Batch of 2 targets.
Target 1
Amino acid sequence: MMYSEKVLDHFSNPRNVGEIEDADGVGEIGNAKCGDIMKMYLKIDNGIITDAKFKTFGCGAAVATSSMATELIKGKSIDDALKLTNQAVVEALDGLPAVKIHCSVLAEQAVRSALSDYYTRQGIDPLPIVGEIHEPEE
Amino acid sequence: MEKRFIYADNAATTAVSEEVLNAMLPYFREAYGNASSIYKLGRDAQKAVEEAREKVAAALGADPKEIFFTSCGSESDNWAIKGTAELMAKRGKKHIITSVFEHHAVLHTCEYLEKHGFEVTYVPVSDKGLIDPEDVRKAIRDDTALVTIMYANNEIGTIQPIDEIAAICKEKKVIFHTDAVQAVGHVDIDVHKQGIDMLSLSGHKIHAQKGIGALYIRKGITLPNLIHGGGQERAKRAGTENVPAIVGLGVAIEAATKNIAERNAVIIPRRNRLIDGMLKLPYTRLNGDREKRLPGNLNISFEGIEGESLLLMLDMNGICGSSGSACTSGSLDPSHVLLSIGLKHEIAHGSLRLSIEDDVTDEDVDYILEVIPKVVERLRSMSPVWEKMMKGEKYQ
C-alpha cells in the first residue's frame, strides 16, 4: 500500500495535535472497535475558526487526514469549514489509497461534529446548519 | 541513538541467503536445460531437482517420493485440502475439521468447500492460542475426510500439539494435514515419527526465493492430480520444473533444519528480552503462550494505539515489523487470529508482531527497546482512546 509523501509528512509531523482547554466546540467521531477515533477541538471567534486541534487513534491515514483537516479550516469562517469535503482533504494530501478513503470522511465528519457542538453550546439547534453527523458503520 | 536498520518480519518473508543464491545461479544460464530433456543439459537439471527433493525429504523425515514441489505454501494447502476432499467425497466423506485461526490459505479453501457441499467444523483455540487435541477428537465423525491444523500460528507463533492431534487422527483413521509454513526450520519435524499425513511448506520463509513450496504426501494417499499436463512431479503437478527455485529450496531447507537448537539458543534469549522490555510499558500484553511459541516470534498489544501507526513509526526508525491491525489488511476487522484468542477489537487493532532470526543482535534488541517506548508514548499522547483510559472512562 502506497501513501503519498504528503500523507507520510502529515503522519510523522502532524499539525495541530493536542487539545484546546477552553474550546468553543469539541467533536468526536468513530469508535475504537473499527480502529479509528478522531477528536477535534475548535476555538471560534466572531464566526472565524481561530484555532483547531485534534487527537486521533487510528492508522497513518487517519492521523494525516485529521492533521490536514485542521490545517484547511484554521483561519476560515464557519461557513467555509462547513463546505470542507473529504475530497478536498484527499486532494490536499495528494491522494489516499482506496481502502483509506473512509479516513477522510471521518476527518470531514469530525469537523462537522465539533461545529455542531459549538452551535449546541450557543443554544442553537445545529441540525439545520450542520446537518446530520455520520458515524462510521461498524 | 544512531538509527539502525532491523528486519524483524521474517514470518512475512526472508532474504535469499548467499548460499542459496549461489546454488541457484548455475541453473539460470549454464545448466538451464529442461529437466524432461534427454541430453546432458536436461539430465543435469533433472539430477538437481531430485537432489533437492532428497534434501527436502531428509529435512522432514520423509521419503523423496513423498515430496512434491509446488509454487508456494498456499498452493500446497489448496492441493492438500481440495485434493483430499475430492478423494474422500467418493467414499461419502464430506466433513473437514480445521481451526478458527488457520492461515487464510486454509480457511478460505475450507469456506470454498463449504459452498460445494462439504461441512467444516472449526475447532476453537484457547486464550493462549493453543488447540486442545480433545476438541479435535470430539469433532471427528464417521464422515470426516480430513483434519487440517496448522503447526505453528503465523501471527502469534503458538506451536500446536501436532503429535497428539496426529495420534488421534491415526486412531480414528482420518487423514491429517498440517500447514507448517511457519514451523519448518524453527522446530524439529519428523513426519513419519509424528504421524503426519500431509505437510505444506514454503521456501521464502526459510531463505529460499518466493514462488517455491512443497507438499509432503504420505505414501498410500493418492491425491488427485493438481495440474494436468506433462509427467512432471510424477504427473501430479504438471508444468516444467522451476529448477533454480527447487535447487534453492533444497539448499535452504537443509541449512534451516541443520542446527535448529543452536540457533534457537541464540534467538530465544533475545526474543525474551524484547518481550520483557515491551511488557514493562503499562497496558501491554503478550498474545499467545509464552513457552509453546516459535523462537523468534513475539506478538504484543499496546492498548490505546493503532497498529498501522505503530508500524509506520517503527519504519521511520528503521525497524520492520507487522501488525494485526485491520488497516494493513484493508478491512475494518482486525486479525481473526487475535479475535480468536479473545482479544477485543480495540485491543487487537494495536498489536505488533516481530519475528526475529539470529542476525538480530543484542545491540539491535537494545535499539528496539529504546525506540518502542518512545513511539508508543508518542502515539498514546495523541490518542483520544488513551486519554479516556487515563481518565478511567470507557472508550468503546
Target 2
Amino acid sequence: MNKGVQSVISDSNIITSHPVMAEPFGNALIELAKKNDRIVGLSADLAKYTDIHIFRDAFPDRFYNVGMSEQLMMCAAAGLAKEGFIPYATTYATFIARRCYDFISQAICEHGLNVKIIGGLPGLQSGYGPSHQATDDLAILGAMPDLTIIDPCDAVETMQATAAIAEYDRPVYMRLLRGNRVPVVLDKYDYVFEIGKAKLLKDGSDALVISCGEMTMRCLDAAEELEKEGRHVAVLHVPTIKPFDRETVLAAIAERSCPVFTAENHTTYGGLGTLVASAVAEEKMIADLHRIALPDQYLEAGTLGRLQDMYGVSQKAVSETMRSVLS
Amino acid sequence: MDTKINELLDRAYNVRKNVLRMGYVDRRGFIAQGLGASDFLTGLFFHAMRYDPKDPDWEGRDRFLLSAGHNAIAVYAAMAEARMIPEEWLDTYGLDDSHLPMSSMPKYTPGIEISGGSIGLGLPIAVGMAMGLKRKNSDSRVYVMMGDGEMAEGPTWEAATSACSYKLDNIIGLVDANGIQADGLTSTVVNTEPLDEKFRAFGFEVQRINGNSMTEVVRALDNAKNSEEKKPHMIICDTVPGTGLDFLIGNPKSHFISLDEEGWKRAFEELERGKE
C-alpha cells in the first residue's frame, strides 16, 4: 500500500472531531443488495477508492469492474438498467462530470434510466490538483435535464441516500464521502434524508446558512462555535441540488431579516450559491447574500487541510467568514 | 436454400423501395447508406433475429441497437417491411411530429432501443445489455449495427475490451463498412481499417463479408449464432453505398444525397428495373 496516496485521498475524513464510520456507502449498498437482487455494482478501476470494493467482496458475481473505461461504464450501466437492473456505478467525480457527460446524457438521462452514478472526491477533497478536484461537477451535471443530484453531508446521510435512491426509478448522481473515517454528524439533529427536501437542522436569527454536502458539517460546527459567542446561526441543509427545493429555501430567507450565507464544496459558478441567488432574484426578494465556495479557477495541488484553509472552505475559514460579516 | 435467398432478395428490394420512399419526403437524405445497408439488415430482420412485430418490448426478443443513428433510414425501412411500424409512417420521415426522426431515438419509434445521434455508444450499451441478459439467463442476443467511420470513436474500443474480457458471446456486432463519412471517404478522412484485424486482436470472433451478398450475409449470421466460441462476434460487412441504383454508386457526395424531380423518377425506375 502506498501510504502517500492513501493519506492525500482520505485526509478530509481524518480531520474531524466527530465520531466516524467506515465505508457508509459500501455498507449501505450491501444491506440493500441483500434485500434487492436487482442491485448490481460497477467501477472503472476505482472500487477500492469508492468503497464499492466491500460490495464486490460480498457479491462478487454482481459486480463488474470495466477497468479504466469510464465512458463505457456509463453505457454499460445504461444497458443493465434497460434489462431491469439497478446499477450503482462508481468512479471519481471529475471523470463523471468532465469525461462522461455525453454518455450520461444520451445513454442514460435522455431515457430516464434507473442508473445511480456515485462520484468520489467531489469538490475539493484531493490534493492531487485539478485532475482530481471536482470543483465543477454540480455546475456541469446540473445542466443535464432529468438528472437528480445529491450531495450528502455525512455518513448517516450517505447511508440513507444510498438506500433512498434505489427506490427512486430515475437517474441519480450522488457525491460520495468515503473512507475508513467518514464523520457521523446528523444523528444529533434527528435528521431523515428525503430526495428533493431541504431541512432546517438548527434554528437561529442572526444569520442563515444554506449549505450542502460536507459543508453542512463544517457550517454546523461553525454555528455551534458562534453560538458560544452569542450569535444564533440557522443552518438549512440542501442535500438535493437538483431538483432544487426552492420553496423551502426562499421561505427560510423570507422568515428572517439577517445575512444569508451559502456554503458549498464547489466553485462559485453554477452550484448552490447560484441557485439561491437566482431564486432570490426571480422572486424580487432583497437578501444580504454571501457565498462560501471555491474560487472559479484551477486549484493548487498540496495537502488538503492547507488547501481548504487557503480556499476558504475549512471549518475555521467558514467561522472566520461568518464572524467578519456579523461583526 | 435458393428459395430462402430469393425470398430474402424480394424483402431486400422492398426495404430499398422503403428507403427511397423516405428519401423522397424531403427529396434528399442518407439514401446511399440506406441502400447499401439494405441487404444485411434484411438478413437480420428476416433471417437472424427473433422478435414480435406487435410487441416491441417482448422480453424474449433479440435486442437490435443502431449505434450510428444517421443510418435510421435503413432501419426504419426494414422495420416497416417487418410490420413493426406502419408503412404510412415512412412518408413522414424527418418531418415535424413524425415517428421517424432523421436520427433514431426510443422516444419516437417503438422498437428503437437506444439513441444514436452522438455515435460510438452502441457497442458500449450492448455490453451492459449483454451482461444483463446473461444475469437473467436469457438466450436473447444483442445485435449492434455500427459504421466504419464510427470506428474512430474511442468508447467502441473500451467496449470491445470489456466485451471480450467478460466473454459476452451473446453480442453480434455488424459494421457497415461503406467507406464514407461526413467529410468524405473514410480512407482519406481517417483510415479506420483494418477493422477485421483490429476486432480479432481484441478477442472477437470476426467474419468479413460482402455485405451486399445475401448468401454471405445469411452464412455469416448463421455462423455467429451457431458458434461455440465464448467470444463476442463481429461481422464486418463491406457494402457499396447506393447498391441497387447504379447511378448513385461512386458519387463523391453520397453521404447526403440531394436529387431533383428527374433524379427521383430515375431512381424509382432504376430500382424497379433492377428487380427484374
